[in-house]
Amino acid sequence: MIIFVVSSTITSNHHSFIKYPSFMQSIKELYRIGNGPSSSHTMGPKKAAELFVEDHPHATKFNVTLYGSLAATGKGHLTDQALLNVLEPVASTIIEWLPKTFLPFHPNALKLDAYDENDKIVDSRTIYSVGGGALSDGNNIIGLTADQGKDIYPMTTMSEIMDWCERSGKSYWEYVEDCEGQEIWDYLEEVWRVMKDAVKRGLDNEGVLPGPLSLHRKAVSYHIKAEGYKDSLRSRGLVFAYALAVSEENASGGEIVTAPTCGSCGVVPAVLYHLEVSRGFSKNRMLRALATAGLFGNVVKQNASISGAEVGCQGEVGVACAMAAAAASQLFGGSPAQIEYAAEMGLEHHLGMTCDPVCGLVQIPCIERNAYAAARALDANIYSSFTDGIHRVSFDRVVDVMKQTGHDLPSLYKETGEGGLAKGHEFSHS
Questions:
Q1: 171 and 74: one domain?
Q2: For residue 37, is the peptide bond before it cis, meaning its omega torsion is within 30 degrees of 0?
Q3: The domain containing residue 63 runs over which residues?
Q4: Helix (H) or strand (E) holding 159
Q5: 154-179: b or e for each residue (b if 16 or more CB lie within 10 Å)?
Q6: Residue 182, class by beta-carbon neighbours within 10 Å (0-12 exposed, 13-18 middle, 19+ buried)?
């Protein structure tokens, strides 16, 4: 039996930013292969439920309490279905929704209770879905494989890494290789395969996306129209089509790669797929571009956040744009300084972007934002290529500003479904 309970209990919406260790983990943890529509609201809770079931396979009942953003937009993100698909086969599950209650550590919180045959709680565990599918117990990142959890990047700021590039004469992807080992290329090859498959599926699929908005898929029509233009208009239209294709697949629960999240998963694949098709770059160069993009995303995740519920959409689409801009600059032979500049512009010009999904769905404005950010990433690369890479505001500085901006944003604009474009389109929990 499934029971949905709605509560309007109000507590403080202030929270502390995650304190990551003084090292960076593998980019495998950033590039997660899974199903949409949301890394923090779907993939994360599903993983949390799987970990809990592993410890309590004989429980007679589960109770799940969803807090804050996880409750506010969880219905639209299929959070309940992700949980129930794991828990219900083991025992009956009750889900309680507390969208007005924010726990101090992070706005995406859930509490899992397991009961025995005497209806007594045998374990209670609070877990936070902190962005990109990652989980935290409030102190440490949890649920990682031994490979994912390796402490492998001793340098955690882009200024440090740039200095290393200048001293060694190497590029960013070589720093990734030095830290990750040769095996990273096999993983990135699989990542690239999944990304390309998502583009191709999205260009082939038609119809209406799931949910109450009745939003029609647009990728196929954009692709057809783009082929009718010449030169720059054709190029831009194809980039739009590729980003829409992946984002629409994500909104439909299809297999995608978090880059850095599900909600922003269309940006990097769109840029890279377009450049591979139009420019004929080799597979090895595409994988190196992915490594570079992952490194920049990792720096943001390490020093700020990639969670829309924590810092707004600047941490999702903004970071994706920065990653894609860095990858494009890498492909076109940019110097370490030019690559860093391209990434800096990609993130800087998304500062302050709110996370306000209509009806809690990763559709409006998310899908269009992916397409637009892909185009801006290419523009950032072009702009950077006209320079020598020297500029006043560093990537690290923008990351710091993004973190502070996210902290200062009212909770209305951080994936609560109560402000901005989402206002007046609340998703019912009944």
A1: no
A2: yes
A3: 2-142
A4: helix 158-168
A5: ebbbbeebbebbeeeeebbbbbbbeb
A6: exposed
> Which ranges constitute the DSSP H helices of 78-146?
79-87
Query: What are 259-298's pLDDT values in tens digits?
Result: 999 999 999 999 999 999 999 999 999 999 999 999 999 9
Nearest to 18 by CA among 296, 295, 311, 405: 311
Q: How large a percentage of the chain has pLDDT more than 90?
A: 84
What DSSP letter does each residue of 232-253 carry, written as one string? HHHHHHHHHHHHHHHHHHHHTT
pTM, two decimal places:
0.89
> Does residue 139 register a pLDDT over 60?
yes
> In the beta sheet, which residues pair with residue 98?
67
Residue with tokens 């390309």: 196
User: Distance (Å, rounded) from C-alpha 102 to C-alpha 107?
Assistant: 6
Residue 397 tokens, joined = 């500085």
d(CA 144, CA 125) in angstroms, rounded, equals 17
Q: The tokens 């200062």 sit on which residue?
A: 408
Residue 152 contacts residue 247 (beta carbons within 8 Å): no
Which of 142, 175, 207 corresponds to the end of one domain?
A: 142
Same domain for 137 and 167? Answer: no
With a CB cutoff of 8 Å and minimum separation 6, the contacts of 163 are none
Tokens of 60: 């007679």
Q: Is 354 inside a domain boundary?
A: yes
Residue 428 placed within a domain: no
Q: What is the pLDDT of residue 19?
A: 45
Residues 404, 296 within the same domain? yes
